[in-house]
Oxidoreductase YcjS
Amino acid sequence: MKKIKVGIIGAGGISHFHIEAYKTIPEVEVVAICDPNEAKLSFVAEKFGILKRFENWENIINENLDIVSICSPNAFHAQQSIAALKSGKHVICEKPVAINVEETESIINTVQQTNNKFMVAFCHRFASHSQFIKKMVENNQMGEIYFAKASCLRRRGIPGLGTWFTTKKLAGGGPLIDIGVHILDLAVYLMGCPDPRLVVGVTYNKFKNQAVDGGWPPIWSRVGDKPTGVFDVEDLAAGFIKFNNNATLFLEASWAGNSESGLKIALMGTKNGVQYWTEATPPLRVYGEMNGVVTDTIAEFPPVNTYRAEIEHFVNCVRNNTQPITTPKEILTVVKIIEGIYRSAETGRPVELT
Ligand SMILES: NC(=O)c1ccc[n+]([C@@H]2O[C@H](COP(=O)([O-])OP(=O)(O)OC[C@H]3O[C@@H](n4cnc5c(N)ncnc54)[C@H](O)[C@@H]3O)[C@@H](O)[C@H]2O)c1
């Protein structure tokens, strides 16, 4: 069988996880990689034996490839996704898909024009607990989901302090667009992607003068990086979202703050409620009722390598001509909510989205 050829744009921390996942699939070959940081480019290319190496990402677009993994800073995602799709490649793009709604709509239009596969690397969807909850929703075991809470909180965990991560024009924002995006996407996916109607948002930056680097990207991957020291994004954001079907979602994300930490999603339905929280033992609990008595059910799952699962899923979509798990509507809804929260925080007013 003809091998599926892959190219990687951006040789930073997350690229290692993409490449390791591709390497577990026998009919896939990672043949090219690019990064403007020459030292990092050589480090990753040598580690994984990738022969074609470019400092300019446009060279990847001109290569004969089937799939491109976009692992660059957020501000480049739209431009690079669109160029790769137009040159006939299937694209898996790291989260966030882009830094605003306008860019996201351009990507989705290009996907529709080219008919190539496009997926956002929302790896949390592939976790066992996420799929367990999704099945509960699909089998109508939740009833009507009318209230949800989603949080991704770190006490001291600012990624790449002083690099592109903390620079608004390159990242688009702080923890909301960096890690809040994962849990927001999961909530939107599990709630069946209702249309958001109204958003109220707030952002804070209280740790500017006592910021602690959170250890991501892994220190060993930061070869040749030259931090500029910029930190002009929030360190905490929260939003309250009302949907057209009258469901509501409370969302919070922090890189730093004096609170509990971990990733949590809680959905309240008319038949059952469910909560997953990384810090609980066991992490997943279903809140129900049996014979007029309230009941708690616990569920335990084997761990899943979610990066490997997402790459396997995308390769299968390309191979079998099936649709990736992230739909255009879900992709756009997540960005609309994020943009709405930032706009509301800036203006101090609720933002109508429809
Ligand atoms: N899915 C996840 O759980 C997850 C985890 C971490 C990061 N990410 C995402 O992956 C992306 C990369 O993050 P990272 O942690 O690897 O960051 P990183 O800083 O380790 O790597 C980014 C790399 O991109 C390179 N780069 C800069 N400008 C570029 C350009 N124009 N074209 C190509 N490459 C360019 C940098 O030199 C750097 O090597 C981000 O969008 C981030 O949000 C996702």
Q: What stands out?
A: The two ends are 48 Å apart (CA to CA). The domain at 124-307+334-352 is CATH 3.30.360.10 (Dihydrodipicolinate Reductase; domain 2). Residues 9-15, 34-37, 40, 57, 71-74, 76, 94-95, 121, 123, 160, 178, 217, 221 surround nicotinamide-adenine-dinucleotide (CB under 6 Å).
